[in-house]
Amino acid sequence: MIKEKIKTLAKKYADEFIEVRHHLHAHPELSYKEFETSKFVQQKLTEFGIPFEIKATTGVIGIIKGKNPTKRIIALRADMDALPITEENDVDYKSKNIGLMHACGHDVHTSVLLGASKVLNELKDEWEGTIKLIFQPGEEKNPGGASLLIKENVLENPKPAAILGLHVHPGMEVGKLSFRGGMVMASADEIYITIKGKGGHAAAPHTTVDTILIASHLIVALQQIISRNRNPFSPSVLSITSFQGGYTTNVIPSEVKLMGTFRAMDEAWRFKAHELIRKEAIGLVESMGAQIDLHIDVGYPVVHNNEALNKIARKEAEEYIGKENVSETEMRMGAEDFGYYTQLIPGCFYRLGVMNEEKKITSGVHTPTFNIDESAIEIGMGMMAWLGVSVSL
User: Fold this and answer.
1) What is the CATH number of the domain that holds 309?
2) What distance in Å separates the CA atoms of residue 175 and residue 152, rounded to the nearest whole number?
3) Whether the predicted pLDDT of 392 surpasses 90
């Protein structure tokens, strides 16, 4: 039975792909600069005998054809970029690129997909269809590598019927997986505001336009957009995360800069909120005598898991690792450019447990001490290979 063969090969090759993960972890590269990572992935696919092409400069797209290659086409995706974080872990495979770190687990994602690719290729005479392998750049930074690959027709020739991807979950024990249908992760937009007015002496505010006061009013007013206008059953977050203005105690500055993020789980409300933010900000600032420059950088869309595909994938996962090891993924206001794929074809974005409290592996993603229990590699590569050959719509 192919499921058992996948498990056997995943176990056989687990150490090999743990070493692959060590190499990737030690050599992180930032978004859109994954040049050596891309070369490494290309080298591995060449070793496995898997043909590939390059898209979006560093993206690597592989193809594995099984029996009856046109019968079913499934895409499997992993991201490759790292973060500008200085690693604090004391491990042999610690980042050699100072100031850069695979703190979001993309080294794990790439290793898992490479492992699944080797397994799938060895068993290609025993499953039907075609598997498209997507090793994606730039997940951590707008406009998102997924959007660039889509512009270069990654979902065409051949067109997948569905796409699956995974993400490490540092809050879930190793050996477990989680799935969720419908809304999974939020959209993410960046807000940049500059408020300008006549500065002057702090002891004579009547001769100035107090940009600090205006900015303070605006921050409070923007929160009311969320609390008073959105459907209370639709999660949404607006956070102003930077307030830059002034440089001493006795001067009202002529300029204040605000930055923040807006997250939503509903695309229609998302863009309505943009209009409300612009209207509120411009009206309030100008009514108080200042000028405003406002830019909303539209980022990743909502990640929406296809309900039918998620149900199938979850059932196959339960068969692979046991129903007791599969749970419901919590909704998260974090963002993922996997959402671009799910706008176009059915997608399933699931979670891989990597936490081990006994080994004190509990740090969250985007922290300098993030790490994983590496037994997750075997589970991850086997699971992705199994889903690649078992799901269909």
Assistant:
1) 3.40.630.10
2) 36
3) no
Task: Clarify whether residues 192 and 178 are in a common domain.
Answer: no
Phi and psi at residue 158, to the nearest 5°: -90, 160
- Are 143 and 265 within one domain? no
Partners of residue 187 on adjacent β-strands: 264
φ and ψ at residue 119, rounded to 5 degrees: -65, -50
Active site annotation includes 32 = no
**H/E segment holding residue 271:** helix 267-287
Nearest CA among 329, 363, 385 for reference residue 102: 363
Question: Which residue out of 13, 93, 300, 350 is catalytically annotated?
Answer: 300
Given the residues 87, 140, 374, 378, select the one marked as catalytic.
374
Confidence of residue 393 (pLDDT cuts 50, 70, 90): confident
| Preceding peptide of 232 cis, ω within 30° | no
Residues 174 and 292 in one domain: no
Closest CA to 270 of 333, 327, 318: 333
pLDDT of 302 over the 80 cut: yes
**Domain range enclosing 230:** 187-297
Mean of per-residue pLDDT scores for the chain = 97
CA angle 385, 388, 393 (to 5 degrees): 160
Longest Cα–Cα distance in the chain: 82
Per-residue confidence (pLDDT) for residue 180, from 0 to 100: 98
310-347: per-residue pLDDT in tens?
999 999 999 999 999 999 999 999 999 999 999 999 99
Phi-psi label, residue 222: left if phi above 0, alpha if psi -120 to 50, beta otherwise: alpha
- For 120-153, write each residue's pLDDT tens digit: 999 999 999 999 999 999 999 999 999 999 999 9
Give pLDDT tens digits for 22-67: 999 999 999 999 999 999 999 999 999 999 999 999 999 999 999 9
Q: What percent of the chain has pLDDT over 90?
A: 98
Residues 236 and 314 in one domain: no
Going by their DSSP bridges, the two strands 291-297 and 200-201 should be labelled as unpaired
Q: Is 374 known to be catalytic?
A: yes
- Number of domains within the chain: 2
The rounded distance, in Å, linking the Cα atoms of 177 and 328 is 9
CATH, residue 191: 3.30.70.360
d(CA 62, CA 71): 18
Shared-domain flag, residues 292 and 315: no
Q: Which one of 297, 332, 362 terminates a domain?
A: 297
Are 37 and 171 in the same domain? yes
